[in-house]
Task: structure prediction
Amino acid sequence: MRVLITGAGGQVGRELVELFASDERHQTFSFDRAGLDIGDRDAVLGAITTVAPDVVINPAAWTAVDACESDPDRALRDNALAVRHLADGARRVGARIVHISTDYVFDGSKSDAYVEWDVPNPQSVYGATKLAGERELGPDDTIVRTSWVCGFHGSNMVKTILRLAGEHESLSFVDDQRGHPTFADDLAVMIHCLVVDQRPGVFHVTNQGAVSWFEFAREVLRAAGLDPERVGPVSTADLLPPRPAPRPVNSVLDNAALRLSGIDLLDDFRIPLQRLVARLNS
Result:
């Protein structure tokens, strides 16, 4: 296949580019934000009609959750209207889209894990604009919802936790938000599988193991050979300063569509966490 990848400079985009480029069956065309602003319709249509891909993979997004609250127009442009442009271009060349979305499309009030058929109800500008992007796509396209993404490239919570652990003796992380940490290299492998299998529809794709941010921070320190007891809990309401964007209390995504399709789920998050920490410390 001819594969066009947007957001190639991001932590998921870079993993996707490396993975698809290593697969000799495919021709890969990748664009970072400087090379393709997906909010620019003319640029998007020009890139897609020139490359004429079979599939467009879109991890590009404005993911600054709190900043989205103060600039909803930019969030709509980058997370929703941009997907409309991609869909327009894809239709012109007969391509499918595989679009990366988020747990923030849910309000977090459900008592158990969210399945793909649960009704979204975003509570933040970021979540609302990502859901708007999903709704620009058609029945032949694929939506991959994920959560708490970490990886070797870019900024993420694993790097933040390790940096803070080097600067402070004690750390505090919220214990009333729960989710599935997901590692970018594992996520890319599952996206590759969905692309090759040409599976349409919505899929929740995360590593397994539901934890709070407090529990996750302890696991990061443990993986680095540090004392996890250095991490203490704090409630979201007690964070100073308070965060502008509301976070879902329950971000746990059941990978039901994968599971019911007989597709092996991604490993427990502790396995790629060990791998990532070792790589960061090498």
